[in-house]
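Hi R.,

Here are the chain sequences for the assembly we discussed:
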Amino acid sequence: MLIFEQSRTGRVNTAQQPANVNTASSIPAEFLREDKPLLPEVSEMQAVRHYTRLSTKNFSIDTHFYPLGSCTMKYNPRGCNTLAMLPGFLNRHPDSPANMSQGFLSCMHDLQEILKDVTGMEEVSLAPMAGAQGEFAGVAMIRAYHDAQNGGKGDPDRTEILVPDAAHGTNPATATMCNFKVREIPTNSDGDVDIEALKEAVGPHTAGIMLTNPSTLGVFERKIKEIAGIVHDAGGLLYYDGANLNAILGKVKPGDMGFDVIHMNLHKTFSTPHGGGGPGAGPVGVSKRLIPFLPVPMVIQDGDKFDVVTEKSNPQSIGRLSAFMGNAGVLLRSYIYARLLGSQGMHRVAEYATLNANYMMKKLEQAGFDLAFPNRRATHEFIVTLKKQAKEHNVTAMDFAKRLLDYGFHAPTTYFPLLVPECFLIEPTETEAQDALDGFIAAMIAIQKEAEEDAEKLKGAPYTLPVRRLDDVKAAKELDLTWKK
Amino acid sequence: MPFIPHTEDDVKSMLAAIGVDSIDDLFDEIPTELLSEGLTKVPEGVSEMEISRIMHERAEQDSRALCFAGAGAYEHHIPAAVWEITTRGEYYSAYTPYQAEASQGTLQLLYEYQTMMASLTGMDISNASLYDGASALAEGVLMAVRANRKSKSKRILMPRTVNPKYRQVAHNIVKGQGITLEELDFDMQGGHINIDSLPKDPGDFTALVIPQPNYFGILEDIDALTNWAHEHKALVIAVVNPTSLALLKSPGSWGEKGADITCGEGQPLGAPLSSGGPYFGFMACREVYVRQMPGRIIGRTVDLDGNPGFSLTLQAREQHIRRSKATSNICTNQGLLVTAATIYMTLVGPDGLHKVAQASHANTQDLIAKLEATGKAKRIFSRPVFHEAVMQFEVPTDEIMKQMSAQKILPGVELKNDYPELGNVMMVCATETKTQADLTTYADLLAKIAK
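And here is the predicted structure of the full complex:
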């Protein structure tokens, strides 16, 4: 039942309203609203009960194993939330002067330092509010850098951004937003960038390349130094999509691989909650030559005081990307997480995430599932292809995914990367115990057996969730986007 | 090992299953020269107890401020239930609802949110949120360029009464796409866009942005401005404060035809000030433009048994399908903040939101009167305001800021960087959270600050 269907005209929550409101108004009638907006009129208890009940219809990390490739669904420590929600942090107005902000600014400064260290970059800005905005900031900096060449006259021929065909959809979408042409680079059968194709593609028109390493195919790009050399020699810059930073955290620094600019998804690697689709945070780190272009605001330390820098002192900055300082509360949570892990904890993240992924990969292979790259090590994730099952039993990866929900597991990422047919991208993360991995493997084996014996069973899944499979075609054709009385 | 459950025996058995001797062997595809030599700036790990002490000390440094600042971030009372429910693990730690059957809680909540926002703004439909108000305006500009097929100029008229940070963000985000944001100046007496000063022959332009209330807190002539834009075949992008909409005319009923796109900052609906984020941007529009809308949209449909359910819809607009041809590169939105906003709107209801808006308006009127009564401050614009006002002070504002902030009072937001022509002014705001005693404290302190 929708909240609106529980509404009764005139029902009010007196405790949730300001008391004794002064009704004096200096607003002329022509500006005033005449109709009552359609907000629910329910009691506090009805509201609490409704939204508590709705919550139980969700899968979440706190309730289920969530091996969603490329999304790094690791445990979100409760302490990070509790401490980021201390009143001193929640009640600070973003325009507070530095003398009312030392506590908050010191956390932001320390986080910048930590992120510089783990990425091997020279400077970090925390401003971008999500991974895609971090990407935008990164590509905008590449543009600003080329525009500043030749004594400020720019390098207008550099109109192309190279993107491997396996890349996240945000990569080409971002390049387009920054008015670059996108040129796709093919991947070879082992999952590495096709070096010969790259050599042919680069030239005086190359502004840069956007790479994820490990790639979205779940393998480490072994020739990364050679790629960096080719792109740099052509005058282009290297952009690192930090979506998969969890795989190498503390083990390999993107700066050492030759990247000029990177964004990090703190809601992945630094364990801030996904919140049902955000908020995220997408800080960017840069090599020396891109420092002047970093987005503002940033935090600096002057003696034992912290302050904020803006466009005023950084005139070449690509500017601000949010009204204030990005998703400050998310940044606080990742700072707390980083302090809990500490220097010893960072590389363990990569190590145990990799251990879990390789264990699952081996076990699934032994159970008869086909791997997309059987000759490669898994990184923090790997790909199973269900092409064989599709052919032999007429069941799709989506059918497997929906049936997994009945077994109590969130489905892995399906149909991404687009290069691998009927694929599952599986990322267990370091926070899952061996028992959970074994449970998932057992479910896959059981579903495989069902596919062989009764494929229809998979087609009808799920059976045990609040709803059965939904009609997406109807949803898009007969748009019903708001409730009407 | 924090958050890693493996015992030594687990590791041994897992390595044996894989067929390697050590975890390091799993990294054997990475060229050895790339392996890190360690971290130098990351401090050693601490326990929850230790970090708790550190964070309490830092939070305490910034706490107990009395805030009279607004300028895009507003302190409102947030019912206790809002964040108690929002931080339930089922909302807090869920992913984007791509697996609809396992996400009906979040999806139904978002559908309810879309309904509330569409009604509040007077628009037909709403998306499920964007990053913040500033980036929502940038997306609104991009959307207007896609939606207004009659206009070829990619010219957007952007009044200087729009939040200057929003204008900067919009510029930074859209400039790569050949779009120009052309400023319209404001009336120095009224603090608004004077309809008589609009260009008689503006030429082809794609959209006019209309803020209500504007950055100065002033109410604009929304009806006349909307009609003027529509007469010139341009779209209207409304930038509004959601709290104000309980009191003020909704963009859907501005002028003869109403605004086409409405966006703004959702923070006043249940998000704490929190140093500027996370907040959420909202966006609503007329139904004809739904396919040009960026961000996630939830639709109601049926399942295999014909029972109602909810799923993400119109995904063909988005980056993970359309890649370089997507309506936006946007991927995440601000789901958790929308969860809070939906619960907030449900708890306060239409009546409560109206009271919040009215109390904020009345408190700001009181504050203006009290500050003016000191003889040291004066409102500079003549037009009516919602819950903010620009005040001119006798004493230099940086001196006021210095002295008051030393006593943990934030007296307002200075405007000298963005509007140097306004002189020695500050923008003040008093929401429903301020008592008469708070207002008096401010006025008394101001009276004591010498020139």
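Chain B has two domains: 66-76+349-448, 80-343. The two ends of chain B are 59 Å apart (CA to CA).

Let me know if anything looks off.

Best,
T.
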